[in-house]
Design goal:
The protein contains five helices and ten strands, in the order αβαβββαβαβββαββ. By secondary structure, it is an alpha+beta fold. Strands 5-2-3-6-9 form a five-stranded mixed β-sheet. Strands 1-8-7 form a three-stranded antiparallel β-sheet. It starts with 12 loop residues before the first helix and ends with a strand.
Length: 165
């Protein structure tokens, strides 16, 4: 029987998943400010990284099924494009409690990696224009930097233009 991965000191299910997969990544931690109006913009500012390279993880409901969209914090999610990308008709933002319960992460710290229940994932096509991107490591104030190709492979994401600037 395989052993269950234990969280490393300060680790999250996302960093454990990356470590187990042998994928190179860098953790960026910063002091989270609860009064900041945007988790993603806060991360970009705190890390000194262009907002086009910092991606937020959003959970939407597409025709009754939860789907993850990973889009740059510099823009927003195009719900119609997301529905199209997964062969659906209609997408709306998921209920935050359902997103937290399903992924195992809190809002503002939802990672596309290491989710309690793996959700279908769509990575905005702009990610391929960067050597590395940053996504939530599964905790507010913690991001992981990795290649978009590794993120797509680990999440089995499809690439589609689902972000709007």
């Amino acid at each position: 029987m395989a052993k269950k991965a234990k969280k490393q000191s300060g680790g999250t299910p996302a960093t454990v998943a990356l470590t187990e997969a042998g994928v190179p990544f860098t953790v960026h931690a910063y002091e989270h400010d609860p009064s900041h109006p945007s988790y993603g913009e806060e991360a970009a500012e705190a890390m000194g990284v262009s907002p086009e390279r910092v991606f937020k993880t959003l959970v939407a409901d597409v025709d009754g099924a939860l789907v993850v969209a990973v889009v740059p914090v510099a823009g927003s999610l195009d719900l119609k494009a997301l529905a199209t990308a997964v062969g659906g008709k209609r997408a709306v933002m998921a209920d935050p409690a359902a997103a937290e319960r399903t992924t195992g992460y809190v809002r503002g710290g939802i990672s596309p990696l290491g989710q309690r229940k793996r959700l279908r994932t769509v990575l905005d096509s702009s990610a391929s224009g960067h050597d590395t991107i940053c996504v939530s490591a599964g905790r507010r104030g913690m991001e992981v930097e990795l290649s978009p190709a590794d993120l797509a492979k680990l999440t089995e994401a499809v690439s589609a233009p689902v972000g709007r600037t």
